[in-house]
Amino acid sequence: MNTSTSSVKSFRFLFRWLAGTMVAAGLLALGAVLLNAPGVAAQSTPANLDSWTVEVWPEYDRAAVLVLLNGTVPETTGVPVEVRIPVPAGIDINAVAFPGEDGRLISIPWTTEPTADGQDIVFTLEQPDFVVEYYADVISPPPSRSFDLNLAAPYPVQQATVTLRAPARASDLQTTPAMQSAGTDALGNPLYTMQIGPLAAGEAVPLSVSYTKADANPTIANAVVGDDVANVPAVSSSGVDWLPLLAGLVLALAVVAGVAYWLWRRGQASGGSRQARRRAAREKGDTPVRPVAPAKTQKPAQNLFCPQCGTKYEAADQFCRSCGTARR
Asked: Which stretch of DSSP H or E encloses residue 6?
């Protein structure tokens, strides 16, 4: 086997190996994307919530209303379970978490999806309890302060409760619907509660709150709600997921390699150059047969001597120079 043939076979083997490797890598990356894609894993959705408690903290650590949504998924739902919590558009989402064994909140990755009435906070639970915290900038300026909230249940609820923590230095607090006094918090500020009872999915509980407060300072200065949340990083819906991009790049390279190989094979099948065809024939053991040209017909030689007297003819003689006999 000559050096040229060996090089062609080596290149062919390398090309096939490279194309096969890229295709395999692309399939593995695609599988990883599918396995990590939302909704691919077997997930249930809660048919209802065992409990739904909404805590409202106006001007707690900033001049806004801090809303804490606490829910419990029935244990019969099974995990993992995908949960969607409807919230207003334009809010500042502070945390999505679940309570750990030590009481601290442990952050859950989440995304947001726009809806006709606002947006949904979407996350996956591995345990029944969850907490969603957000700020709503809806309070009117001092001294006569007021705000309205529309608290909607995400799923059918067996028992819904709304609680209100009055801000420090507030007076003449009024709520609609009316709420009952529930003592004071650790700072001595009044607490209020309202038992709602069962709620249908999407059923809203409107809440209007008004009070008098001369200053715009929060109850707790220089505090950051969510400091007790472990592993807080949230997953924004606008974040870039590099895994699908990588899978797409690998698949694109695999397709290019496959097309290039197909074109190369097609060129080989079409016959290639005359030298390549001859080399291929020699490798197969076929010896090309050269065509044999037909032999040229020779004219009969003329007599060189006179048959009558034996005199030698000259080249141009037509008759014998001695006896005159015609040359034959």
From this structure: helix 3-36
C-beta of residue 296 within 8 angstroms of C-beta of residue 310: no
Owning domain of residue 268: 1-37+240-288
3-state secondary structure 248-311: HHHHHHHHHHHHHHHHHHHHHHCCCCHHHHHHHHHHHCCCCCCCCCCCCCCCCCCCCECCCCCC
Whether the Cβ atoms of residue 78 and residue 44 lie closer than 8 Å to each other: yes
Same domain membership, residue 72 and residue 29: no
| Residues in CB range of 193: below 8 A, 6 or more apart | 161, 162, 163, 164, 179, 180, 182
Strands 105-107 and 229-230: parallel
Q: Residue 198's closest CA among 155, 166, 239?
A: 155
* 27, 67: one domain: no
Over residues 142-173, the pLDDT tens digits come to 999 999 999 989 999 989 999 999 999 999 99
Q: Are residues 211 and 273 in the same domain?
A: no
- Provide the number of structural domains found in the chain: 3
> For residue 279, which amino acid is it?
R
Q: What is the pTM of this model?
A: 0.59
In a domain, 45, yes or no: no
What is the tens place of the pLDDT at every residue in 253-302? 776 677 666 666 666 665 555 666 666 666 666 555 555 556 555 555 56
Do 145 and 221 share a domain, yes or no? yes
Q: Do 223 and 272 belong together in one domain?
A: no
